[in-house]
Amino acid sequence: MFKLNPKINNIIKNKLEEGLIDAGKVLEKKVKNNAPVDTGKLRDSIKSEADGLTVTVGTDVKYAKNVEFGTYKQSANPFFRVSIDTEKKDMLKQFKGKL
């Protein structure tokens, strides 16, 4: 088995993390731009967060899923899924740019 030098391993890990952070910020910005605004609470709650080799973009606003998917009383107003679909290429570009 081939083992990388620990310094090289750390450089690669750091670059991967930087790429994920950048990709997360791209998605965060697009989701915020696509989020419907009434009071601004939903839009302002959207954050990206990195933890090691994982990046999460989301919100803690409980009604966000109702906006995204709709309810029997309200039509869906997808803002998150649309953002992912339109930003895939730019997210990948940001990620690859760090490697």
Instruction: Give the number of DSSP strands.
Output: 2
How would the global form be characterised? elongated
Strand content: 5-15%
- Low-pLDDT windows of residues: none
Strand order of the largest sheet: 1-2
The rounded distance between the terminal residues' Cα atoms is: 23 Å
Rg over alpha carbons? 17 Å
**Fraction of residues in helix:** 55-70%
**How many helical elements?**
4
* Overall pLDDT score: 90
Largest sheet: 2 strands, antiparallel
> Structural class, please?
mainly alpha
Subunit arrangement of the protein? single chain
Q: Strand-and-helix sequence, N→C? A: HHEEHH
Overview of this protein structure:
There is one protein chain. The protein has 99 residues and is mainly α. It is 59% helix and 10% strand. It has one domain (6-97). It contains 4 helices and 2 strands. Helix 1 packs antiparallel against helix 4. The longest helix is centred in the first third of the chain and has 29 residues, at 6-34. The chain starts with 5 loop residues before the first helix and ends with a helix.
